[in-house]
Structure formats: structure tokens, C-alpha cells
Amino acid sequence: MLAMASVKREEIQSLTGLRGVAALLVVIAHYWSWTKVTPQGALPDMPWAGAADIGMAIFFTLSGYVIALSYSHWDWRDRPAFNLIRLFFYRFARLYPAYLVFVVIAILTWPDIQDLSDPAAQSYVVPHLLLWQSWMPVKYGGELVSNAHFNVSWSLSVECALYLAFGLGAIVVALLPAWRFRSFILGVAGFYAIWLLVDAAWLYRQSLMPAGWSDGDWYLWLFHFSPFTVALQFLLGVGAFRATLVPLPSTVARLASELGLIGLITVQGLTIAGRLDHSNDALPAAIATVGLLIGARSGSIANRLLSGRAIVYLGTISYSLYLFHPIIPPMALHNRFFETYSTQAAAFHAVNFVSSIGLAIIFATGVYRLIEVPGRQWIRARADRLLGVQRSLATPVLEGTS
Length: 402
Fold this sequence. Notes:
- The protein is mainly α.
- It has a domain at about 1-80 and about 190-220 and about 230-390.
- The protein is about 65% helix and about 0% strand.
- The protein has a two-stranded parallel ribbon.
- It starts with a strand and ends in a 12-residue tail after the last strand.
- Keywords: Membrane, Transmembrane, Transmembrane helix.
């Protein structure tokens, strides 16, 4: 039997709260439009409703940190294949129980994918079951992956690609000879290489993008819904973890945390003011998040704010909240519809908006308690038994952000 390290990695409350903030930003941004009671054109343009980009940047950056925290200590040099398989078993346990429910709901909702003997339905459903739907520039039912029947699951697909990249990267780094500042040099080189590849993919888009795609389609897939640009955010999170391995004075860690929160607020403020938008807000948000990650264990004001009971609870259920929030707005408390955004329309919109958030939290709580946690525990226990891993009682709590 292979015994796992018994070092306890306690939950970092502020990071759980940060997940809650990210989930709330995404839900609020989506629900402003999804709970409308007027035609889209009559809905007031609210700049803060574009906060989904910032929320997703927090998620992906935090994911890089947590994956590095949870799995960097494994023996990637002597047992590379074993640990890569173990990584995917553990991530499968984290994502799939709730995701399987999501898939079933999607299939029951959309008649065109219900006949699984139909090759067209198979070509639609299978990539989503395997969570590789966003890895390549493919449309489903004529829609980009984010607008197709499985909508928000694009981010899970991106996460899976990043898990694979992390595992392969950990193996490569472990096999290389050691030298001073190796991790830093390789991290900077990797970041720059990804940046150049993404830039080249945009520059040569006419040769790369599928027939029938517009520049706008390619832009959205490449910069927002594929794993490639998002990998920059993930890598920043991994770098933040590596930075925490260097002993920092408490004042420095606290300052990093405070600046991180100020940075996120500034990014959101610049977005509201129109100085940042969908095209350039994600990377500044990711950089600000790095500060919060580096100072996550400090006694900062930011950490105290992020450790509040309510926001930590939202962070605890954030995966289910994110995954299932699209199904709630159709359950509106009323069917009123207005041609203009009058005072009465605003009142009904507010009722839909607030009640949908409340219902989403209730639904996510049920999925988390009844499916997500039991499913994760069941799968991980059997994965450990299959792999011959003996788990200690003190195991990492932070398992991911999706």
C-alpha cells in the first residue's frame, strides 16, 4: 500500500470566501439579463453586470493555486504515470457527481439531444460527457460552446485541460535537473510561450479558424472559452503558490492581501466606468487575485472580510451554485412582461432577480449535500482502493474551485 503524506492542509477560509465572491459575481452578471421582464433592448445597460469575466478570472487563478497546493508535493519524478492517473481520478471525483446531474438535466431539457442513437446527438453529447468540448474550435448546434445546451460546462472542460497541463508540466519539471530559480525561470518561460502562441493564433486566424467562423467567433473561443488564454490565469495561480513557499514577513503577506483586494475592487470600478471591458479585464483581475493568494494566511482586513460566514458558505457550495444557476431563472415567481422598463417593470425584475439568487442558493445547497459531497467521497475512496493508496485522516480540504 502507498501511504499518503499525513501533513494536514487545513481549509483556508479566506480562499473559500474568495470562491464565493467569484460565484456571486458570475451569478449576478448573468441574472441581470436572465431574469428580465422586458425585451433585451429595453433592459438598462448596467456596467456591473459584466462582472462574470472578473469572477471567472478569480476562479481560474484560484484553481491554479489550489491544484498546486494539493498536488505539487506528489512524487512526480519516480511515479509520473501513476500520479497523473491519480490526479484525474481525484478531479473526476470532484467534478463529475454534480456534473452528471447537470448532463441529465440538459438532455431532458433539449429534445434534439435526447435520441442517443442519433449520430448527431452523439457528436453533441459525447464531447461534453468527456469534458473536452472547449479544447478545439467546434460549434455545437451552430453555437459556440458557451451558448450551447451545456453552456457553463465550458469552464469545466477548460479546467480538465489545465489539470492535464499541470500533470504533464509537473512530470517535465521533476525530470529536469535542478538548478537555482528553476521553477521561476520555467514559469516565466511557460507564461511567455503561451502568450506568444495565443498571439500567433489570433494573428493567423484566417488560416486556423474553421469555415463559417467569423473573427468574433474566433476571438471569443480563443480568448475566453478555450484553455489556451485561460492557462495564463491558471499559471499565475500556480506561481502564487510557489511564492508562498518562500518565507515572507507577515507585513509583506498582509500588504499583498490588501493590495489584492484593492486591485479587484479597482478592476471592477474601472469596468463600471467603462475603462475596462470584456476584452481586457480578466488578466488584471487575475493579477490582483495573486496578491490575495500570496497573503491568504495573513491577518489582513481583506482576509477577515473574505472569511465571513455568509461568503464562506457561498464559497463552499460555489461549484454547484455556478453549475446549476442557469436552470433557475425560468422558475420565475411571475409571468409578467413589459414592453418598456417602467417603475413597475423594475419592481418585477427585482423580484425575479433576488428570488432567483435565493432559489439558486437553495438548489445548490441540496446538490452539494446530497450529491456533490457523497459522490466525491465515494469515488475517491474507490479510487484509492484501486490504486492502493492509503489515505490518512488528515487530508487536504482545498480540492479545487470549479
